[in-house]
DNA sequence: AAGGGGGCCAACCGCAGCTTC
DNA sequence: CGAAGCTGCGGTTGGCCCCCT
């Protein structure tokens, strides 16, 4: 569609690559004043040489104040496994069940930890929580959460078990 | 001690759905 | 109602860092 042009690719030469502290500051200030959304106008209003898409991504994945950051807990890990077995690669949907975590973060985590691993089997503590979620979000007919992409993997039928998660990956802590 | 490989994370790209006109 | 624009999502890539040999 016109998506690409919609993000303003033709308009001017946007900066790419890692964000600087200065850019972060400008973006934070912009969101503080204008709120989230209207990313298209960020460049103009905030004085950033970034396109809206890049700004949104930076905010959502890194600058949002409610982000948890830090390593994924064993509980979160088991939750990810279970949710992925239900929804497949619908990372944003999974992320909604993990407050403070972003779809990008979960996606990265899953790819490095589970992608090439055999499917396990699930965990109990998580199941209770899931049943709770089931009442709210699972099977939701909310169109916003039920976007239909061509993601076939959502149909995977795996039962997950979780062996006690031993590796806390302490060494990763401060990077 | 140095080099290579793998893990991890941030960011970009392209596509599809939603909204507005 | 249809077209154009905007936003969000998932996939992929590139680079840095740490560990192992």
TrEMBL record:
Main location as per UniProt: nucleus
Domain Myb-like: 11-63, 64-114
Keywords assigned by UniProt, alphabetized: DNA-binding, Nucleus, Repeat, Transcription, Transcription regulation
UniProt xrefs under InterPro entries: EOBI/EOBII-like_plant, Homeodomain-like_sf, Myb_dom, SANT/Myb
SMART domains: SANT
Localization of this protein: Nucleus
The UniProt record lists the keyword Transcription: yes
Record domain HTH myb-type: where: 11-67, 68-118
One Gene Ontology cellular component annotation held by this UniProt entry: nucleus
Any GO MF annotation of the entry: sequence-specific DNA binding
Annotated region (Disordered), positions in chain: 134-159
Low complexity: compositionally biased ranges: 144-159
SUPFAM superfamilies xrefs: Homeodomain-like
Alphabetical list of PROSITE patterns matching this protein: HTH_MYB (PS51294), MYB_LIKE (PS50090)
Protein name: Transcription factor MYB21
Organism annotation: Hibiscus syriacus
Lineage: Eukaryota, Viridiplantae, Streptophyta, Embryophyta, Tracheophyta
